[in-house]
Write the structure tokens for this entry.
Amino acid sequence: MLIDLTENPDCTECGLCREACPVFQIQRQEEYSPRGRVMLDCAGLQTLVFYQCTLCRTCRIVCPIGHDPNGETLRSELINAGIETSANQTMIINIRLYGNPFGPLADGELPKVLTCC
Amino acid sequence: MDQLESLFQPTQVSNREETRIAYSRDASRIQGECRAVVWPETVTDIVRLAQWAAETGVDLVPRGAGTGLCGGSTPQNSVVVDSARLRHIDVLNLQLKHVVVEAGVPLDQLNLNLRSSGLFLPVIPGSHRSATIGGMIATNAAGLHAVRYGRMSDWVEEVVVVDGKGEIQRLSVGDRNAFAGREGITGMIVQATLRLTEIPKSRSLTLFSFEHLADMLEQVKQLKTNSALSALEYLNPHAAGLVGWTARHCVLAEYYSGEGEIRDPAEMVNLWGARESLSARLTQAGFPISEDPQFPPEALEDNLDWLMVQNIPVFGHLGVGILHPRFLREDARIAELYYRVSASGGQISGEHGMGLKKRHWASEALKAEVLALKRQFDPQHIFNRGKLC
Ligand SMILES: Cc1cc2nc3c(=O)[nH]c(=O)nc-3n(C[C@H](O)[C@H](O)[C@H](O)COP(=O)(O)OP(=O)(O)OC[C@H]3O[C@@H](n4cnc5c(N)ncnc54)[C@H](O)[C@@H]3O)c2cc1C
Ligand code: SF4
Ligand code: SF4
């Protein structure tokens, strides 16, 4: 099972996983790398950076000791603390009101088709 | 800071808390303090930054992937200059076997791009997934194939550097001393022309294990005469046990021929994977401090024996005498190790550099060299102040 490890080895901050992270590949800033996120968490920060993780766990696969980034937990802590992005809020309102994340459809507009890789 | 922000696009500079925390240390985990980070995209960005630093007196710390193990890219109330957006692979000259790359290109990305040409850069540190060309030149990295290919300075034809006067310098092999292994104290490497070699046609491995050090070193002497040898990695019994190998003195020999016992590609990947996981595993096992002394061949037996008796896990590039003994935090035996290295005519830093961690051990000769280089390239000491010595 990928999530909910009973024991998650501590990150050693070696930096070997950063090129594997799709978010780092776009941002090219250390705070968005798996190691950067660990450093922010260790410093006790609750930050929107934690939302910018695809939860893909590629970092865990390349990590020599299999450290899990625990993205779901970091996010749920943000939600518990009421820290949200405006995009999140809009999406939730849209789902509640219109049953889809994009909001009301214009007359004759077809629902968007989402495809997956 | 306002002035710094006005020099760049908003996406190229940050002093927000998240950025400052993430850049406050490198893989050594020596804690520093970061004022701000700049992500240059062109050489002129760095020239502008160097001129700003000369005017304000702020220290600039060049940074690649931050995999360094000595605090070389750890800021000390400095502005970090991250090469992560200098990633172009510019020109490949197949006839000369040269490639021109920007400093922030990670080694594995370069070699992946080169694969179809049949060429590669053969200096492979254990951090090859992330380590950048700029960082590898600045530390004069060696690594897993040093016994065959030497170290980074052997593969650099030319570098373009922005020095501490804000001038663009084009330095060739003859000026190698000014940049290779200088840990960013002479300026920021922006671009490099690298020599390449052919990707080997075949590979195989043999994993040897020995009860006695003397027998192992005798075998190593013989192995080094084999022209197909491409790696000679050592794990002492404490380290070997950690990756599930027999807890004896183990030597992993790689050949660019089929003469090794292990030829199955999957099995070879597993063995290399185990070897490359050692650094993180030893940290996890309570030995976070990685040293990198280089011993002359005649001093190996005595020193490996001492490390065994001290119960210190060791691995390393035995073919070139570079060992990685792993210590506890604040371990008093590190000082003893350095005395042993000096007494045996070895090097305190085989491949990781001096950074902040080992600067107190710098020799008078090194201090004099650094001073002369600073005078020539960085008279106002704006690049990597206080590093190396
Ligand atoms: C698991 C692991 C295994 C390792 N194995 C090896 C090994 O086998 N062999 C080996 O030699 N090292 C090894 N290292 C150490 C490290 O990976 C190397 O020193 C590497 O060359 C650093 O590259 P970097 O891009 O991460 O540089 P950084 O760590 O960012 O910087 C290292 C130094 O270079 C300077 N620098 C960085 N970029 C530039 C630039 N563009 N211009 C000027 N100066 C610059 C920095 O200021 C700093 O002083 C290992 C590290 C880890 C974590
Ligand atoms: S799980 Fe998150 S941190 Fe890890 S690689 Fe994927 S996006 Fe990056
Ligand atoms: S998650 Fe693993 S690979 Fe990434 S920095 Fe931490 S220990 Fe290294």
Observations:
- The interface with chain B takes residues 9-10, 12-20, 28-31, 33, 35-36, 39-40, 43, 45, 47, 49, 62-65 of chain A (CB under 8 Å).
- Chain A has two domains: 16-83, 85-117.
- Chain A is about 35% helix and 0% strand.
